[in-house]
Amino acid sequence: MKSEQWRSTTILAVRHGDKVALGGDGQVSLGQTVVKANASKIRKLFDDRVLVGFAGATADAFALLERYEAKLGDFQGNVPRAATELAKEWRLDRALRRLEAMMLTVDAQNVLLLSGTGDVISPTDGIMGIGSGGSYALASARALAKHTTLSAGEIVRESLGIAADICVYTNSNIAVEELDCKS
């Protein structure tokens, strides 16, 4: 018998205008069953100057989140450096390589995707989506950013709502956090 697969989220980051927003839905599913509808998958770190969202196996994501927070402390909140160091550790450490999670992290200057393959990716347009409904939210956010005057937070909320209407592993219990990008 094949074991059930955890499906656990959609996370979206949008840099637009003078704001950057990160949002996620609240659904955690095991196979075809919703086991939690209001999970919190967005965290504020480093004196609320860094936002992190995670998708994938929950315990794995929390393990990575703790390590990332430590790296932020080690590098005085330098998001690209902390992300790169975590990605290196994630790729090289035998135990970490088995973790099944992805993270988006944002601050006033950066939107970054971190993956277990050692990737640290900064999107050209400041928009990135991960998780079960990540592609749907990403497509919606790109269209809204290009053709509306909505704020970053509004784009995230609307795009996650659209993803929830399409992806069975995404719900409409949406949480969004914003940071000011002004210097």
From TrEMBL:
It catalyses: ATP-dependent cleavage of peptide bonds with broad specificity. Keywords: Allosteric enzyme, Cytoplasm, Hydrolase, Metal-binding, Protease, Sodium, Threonine protease. GO terms for cellular component: HslUV protease complex; proteasome core complex. One of its GO terms (biological process) is proteolysis involved in protein catabolic process. It is found in: Cytoplasm. This is ATP-dependent protease subunit HslV. Pfam families: Proteasome. The keyword Hydrolase applies. GO terms for molecular function: metal ion binding; threonine-type endopeptidase activity. PROSITE patterns: PROTEASOME_BETA_2. Its EC number is 3.4.25.2.
